[in-house]
C-alpha cells in the first residue's frame, strides 16, 4: 500500500509539472507567432520534448502502478514508451530542421523582433522550469522515468536563458541578428538530442544487442563454464531502457546441470544480464539440429 501511495503521489507531482509545461508551451507559441520570434518558437519546440517526455513518464508510472501485464502481453507495456520516443524523435527532427532553415534564411535580412516580450516570456519560462525542477527533484532520485523528465526540463531551462539573452540584446542594443542566431543555437542543441533519442529507440525496436554488452565475450565465457560443450541460440536484446534480456541454450555432458545453470547465470550477471533464460541440455539433444536452432 505504501508503494501504491508513493506511486500515486509521484504521478500527481508529475501531472502538475505537465500542466505547468503545457501552459507555458502554449504561451511561447502564441507570443512567438505574434512577434515573429524564431528563438521563442525554437524554445517552444524544445519544450514540446518536455511535454512528450513527461507524458511518457506519467503513462509509464501509471502502467507500472496499475499493472500492465496480461496473458497476451507477457512483457507488459514496456515497448509503448519506446514507440513514443521514436515518434517524438521524428517530430523533433522536423521541428529542428524547420527552425534551422528558417533562421538561416533570416540571417540575410532579420525582421525587427520586439525585445521586451522575449525577455518577459523567457523570465517566465525560466521560473516555470526551475519550479518544475524543484517539484521533481526528489522523485528523480528514485525513478528512471521521472529522472528523464527532470533532465529534459533542465535542458529547457538553458533554452530559456538563450531566449533571455536574445531579448536583452534586442531590447538594449537593437541587434536584430540576436533572434535568428539564438534560434540556430537552440535548433543545433535540439537536433543531436532528437537524433540520439531516435537512434536509441530504433536500436531497441530492431532488437539489436545493447552497445554496452560484448556478445562475443559473453559467448566465450559461457563456453568456458565447466562441462559446457556448446553454446547456441544466444540472443541479447533490450526490452526497454534499463532492461536488457538474454536467452541461451547450453549443451553439456555434465550430469550436474544445476551447477552448470548456476555458473552460467553468474557469467550473465557479470554482464548485467540478470533477466535471462538459460536452457541446459544434454549433448545428445543437439544431434540432428541446425546451427542456430534445435
Automatic annotation (TrEMBL):
Cell compartment(s), UniProt: Membrane
Pfam family, any one: Cation_efflux
Keyword Nucleotide-binding assigned: no
Domain Cation efflux protein transmembrane: 14-206
Membrane topology: Multi-pass membrane protein
Residues in the signal sequence: none
Cation efflux protein cytoplasmic domain segment(s): 210-282
Name of the protein: Cation diffusion facilitator family transporter
Annotated family: Belongs to the cation diffusion facilitator (CDF) transporter (TC 2.A.4) family. SLC30A subfamily.
Transmembrane feature ranges: 12-33, 45-64, 85-104, 116-136, 148-171
Main subcellular localisation: membrane
Superkingdom assignment: Bacteria
Gene3D superfamilies per the UniProt record, alphabetical: Cation efflux protein transmembrane domain
Entries under InterPro entries matching the protein: Cation_efflux, Cation_efflux_CTD, Cation_efflux_CTD_sf, Cation_efflux_TM, Cation_efflux_TMD_sf, CDF/SLC30A
Keywords: Ion transport, Membrane, Transmembrane, Transmembrane helix, Transport
